[in-house]
Amino acid sequence: MVEKNFVNVFILGGGFMLIFTSFQTLGNIEQTIIDSIKTDLPSFTGDGYTSLAIIYAALSLSNWVTPSVLSAIGPRLAMTIGAITYCLFMASFFLPSVVLLYGCSVVLGAGAALIWTGQGMYLSQCSNTDTISRNSGVFWAMLQLSMFFGNLLVFFTFQGKTHIDERTRNIVFSVLIVVGIAGLVLLACLRHPATDRDSPVEVTPAVRPREAFLNAVRLFRTKRMLLLCITFVYTGLSLSFFSGVYGSSIGFTNAIGTSAKQFVGLNGVFIGVGEVLGGVAFGLLGTKTTGRCGRDPIVIVGGVLHLASYFLIYLNLPNAAPFGNTDAVSYIQPPSAVAAMACSFLLGLGDACFNTQCYSMLGGVFKNEPAEAFSIFKFTQSVAAAASFVYSSYCGLHVQLIILVVLGILGTVSFCLVEFAVKRERPALEREYEK
């Protein structure tokens, strides 16, 4: 039984790795691709940042209704339907149309809520109190491997190109869709999890969705959750920055050289290296790393890494970089590709610090209300990501970096305040347990 569930976790991680190899790669290059489409097809007025904003807005709203859907169809079918929406979104780029792009963005947002809520439920069903940390770490590490393969394809395909022509775009889209379909097949093949006494309590279809919503509203209003929401907002802002804005900014900076577009893909690879290293260090080894000194030192490290990367990005890339091809430069002249890739690694590693500890906090401190806590996390993060993609179309790079610095500091402090409170409560709980 244990082996069967562990195999289920590997299949789950493999499916997500393939699907997000496609989607994260496309998200990383979407604005760059759309800029090239506009050059070839002037009548096309779509915007990559707007598309991503719509996706995260739809995801945030859908998070409140997906529990009802999952109670009716279950997590496996929900993940399969969600995976289909990812494939449809990628296929829409073969027919450049503003209506199709934004319409598929809405559909994908709803599908993303299904696939992520289904993932959380299915992973819980495949785990017990002894294996949840291990299974979460394995899934996280496999998911972050998605940053490598698609971005390596982009790195070699975009080599030496200052304009991404239609043939090159179609090759990339075709490969990404095939990989996404392979992930869809894996998720469709997921088996029923084996259950035991430690398995989570099953959702009651007739009652649970309404109760979960009311409990989530109540939990959202508590002081502890409001403080954590500041951290969640920051993770959403940083996610949108390194997954959509930063890579495009590198590709649009002409002073990097003729290989600027090529570095868009390599940027994703280095983010992935940081994510995987962080996932392994703080996910798979989470018990050892957090048991001795708590979660706050890891989050502080993540905050420092991000602040360092923002400062280096400020020095390296021009303010106009997010908007399109530019000959402008910043303080480092010419811009350094090595520094840009170093920042990519720091962004990935810092993100792993924040996310692994947020998951640990939600799964530990709110273990009696995990569904409500995680729904608030995804809702808040998605709203912030959507807002970030909206202002990314209007605010220069340096203004965006200032916003990230301020929220990064506030998010780190607010997380630490909650962790300090949890540490103070722990001895009392242990004494009560001993009685």
From TrEMBL:
Transmembrane annotation, as ranges: 7-26, 46-65, 77-94, 100-117, 138-159, 171-190, 225-246, 266-286, 298-317, 400-422
Keywords, alphabetical: Glycoprotein, Membrane, Transmembrane, Transmembrane helix
Membrane topology category: Multi-pass membrane protein
Main location as per UniProt: membrane
Gene Ontology CC annotations of this record: membrane
Domain of life: Eukaryota
Subcellular location(s) of the protein: Membrane
Pfam family, one: UNC-93
Similarity section: Belongs to the unc-93 family.
Protein name in the entry: UNC93-like protein MFSD11
Organism of provenance: Anopheles atroparvus (European mosquito)
Lineage: Eukaryota, Metazoa, Ecdysozoa, Arthropoda, Hexapoda
